[in-house]
Amino acid sequence: GESVGLHLPTLSVQEGDNSIINCAYSNSASDYFIWYKQESGKGPQFIIDIRSNMDKRQGQRVTVLLNKTVKHLSLQIAATQPGDSAVYFCAENLGGGADGLTFGKGTHLIIQP
Amino acid sequence: DVKVTQSSRYLVKRTGEKVFLECVQDMDHENMFWYRQDPGLGLRLIYFSYDVKMKEKGDIPEGYSVSREKKERFSLILESASTNQTSMYLCASSRPAQRQPQHFGDGTRLSIL
User: Fold this and answer.
1) Chain B touched by A101 (CB under 8 Å)
2) Which residue is closest to A7 within chain B, CA to CA?
3) In angstroms, rounded to a whole number, what is the distance separating the alpha carbons of residues B105 and A41?
4) Cα(B106)–Cα(B12) distance, integer angstroms
5) β-pairing, B10-13 with B108-112?
6) Would you say B87 and B110 are in contact if contact means Cβ atoms under 8 Å apart?
7) What's the rounded Cα separation, in Å, for the pair B18 and B12?
8) What's chain A's Rg over C-alpha atoms?
9) Taking CB atoms and an 8 Å limit, are B50 and A98 in contact across chains?
10) Which residue in A6, A32, B33, B47 is a FRET match for B53, CA 20 to 30 A apart?
11) How far is CA B25 from the centre of its chain?
């Protein structure tokens, strides 16, 4: 979900468990969505994307689900590993093209050993 | 792999100085973007460019300008730096087709004293 104030929502999971990170997007006209991972001291790294004509897309250990009815996006990470610790952002794009993305404020995923 | 390189990881400047942040991408992408990232506010689009010598304002262009003289290079200029421009600056690039992910550099952490 979206954060308020200075603190990101935090999700803490045990190593090996599955993680689900949620995002509510704002614009019903958005037709393209991306999940990014940002590790400390680095820029956002592309994980997976999905177009609005799909409701599910799978990558390596990751699945993105899109529910346009309630404007909700989720990222599922299977068998979470220590290297998955990062801040995860969803981003929406209104109609594609050269416009910049609109980002959610992010969720901090912490992996417990 | 797409490589987006930002010339400085850390930069310290004084109020009133003219500051240049440089970004180079090696994938022949037409689209390039500048964002700033602040705690609690997420990533916000400053300017973008979809071709050489072309520029478009993003959500927060005030106090900034940009230059795109070559396809691979996109510069962000702070005309007269102020303390409220202390931030992490992120450059990104993407292909021109619709619904393409943006690829980010590792950022420049700029402090204005």
Assistant:
1) yes
2) B40
3) 11
4) 17
5) parallel
6) yes
7) 12
8) 14
9) yes
10) A32
11) 12
